[in-house]
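Re: beginner question about structure tokens

> Can someone show what the tokenized structure looks like for a real chain? I only ever see the sequence side.

Sure, here's an example I had lying around. Input first:
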Amino acid sequence: MNKFMKQILVGTMAVVSAFSVFGVVGCANDADEGTITVTDMEGTEVTIKKDVSKVACISQSATDLMIAFGLGDKIVGTYRSFTYNPWTTEIYPTCAGYKAYSYSVSAEELVADGIELVIIQDTENAQAFRNAGIPVVAVHQYSPTGAFDDEVYDTARLIGDIFGSDAKQKADAWIKDVKDTISEIESKIGTTNADKAVYYVNGEKSKGLYYSDGGNSMISRIYDIANVQLATEKYEVLNVHKVSDEEMVSLNPYAMMIGGAYQNNLMDSLNASPVWSGLDCVTNNRVYRIPVAMIGIENVGAETPVMLKYTASLFNDSYEFDMHKEMKANIKKYFNYDLTDADIDNMCNGLSKSGERMVDAN
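And the corresponding structure tokens:
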């Protein structure tokens, strides 16, 4: 059974069982009508007061989706990498006021900032936050238990359940948008390229060409839909594997995709390395950039439909895709911002609106 079919099965099972941890994020009102309880992506029940107004959203994906769902004014601070991206303040100027948090932010700092809810991707310090009386909701770019199929939608579901009303409607609409996109791609491309392996470079941080993802991750799910394989599928996703030069020669991927704000720096490193520059995918010009909008679009976010279509078009000649048209429509729909053709060209090259690198080359 491929992952797409598994998604259908999981979705069907979710209707039968409202207690599925990963298929459906649980949500129920407490006896206290002023609170709501949700089940996060780690299976933890979290009770949160309704009408939360100060959120530490220490996840780029959750920040992107909160803004897309009309909740940007509730965010006090976000993960620091989000603040490196100049497109965030260009598209949504309120981002300029967001505080930059690390995953290791202290409970004392969050208390001092008046935080009422933490949404976080790395939960190492979650218990300290809970001990300080701050509810913590875990979201992830991977599944701890299996293929990242229905989990694609869980961050949006959680946001919709926590904030309700318009946010819930927008979250549901985004989920439908992604599911419709997957169905449309699947109906057009078949399974012709399943043997092609693609190496992904995670350029969100300055960790070099060896910083990738493994199986059960969002990028693995994206490649699965495009009918190619993640070259590092066999590696553990919970601790991102750093691939050595020797492993890269052995993997010899068909193609490579480089994302994140550091992608131009990484391209420099690739061209300067005798090992990496000699790979077949490099000599055959199959190294592709991943556009950066509010976030790198390979992450779970409002831009996910664009990434799905873009990736499908790279590896399936029959799939037609217009990046300018799709990105303009997506950013207008979710962030009410009008991109120019020049803007999209810069996004596709990992550059700011003015055509500069997003981060210093050093």
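Each token stands for a local structural state, so reading them left to right follows the chain. Confidence is low (pLDDT under 50) at residues 1-24.
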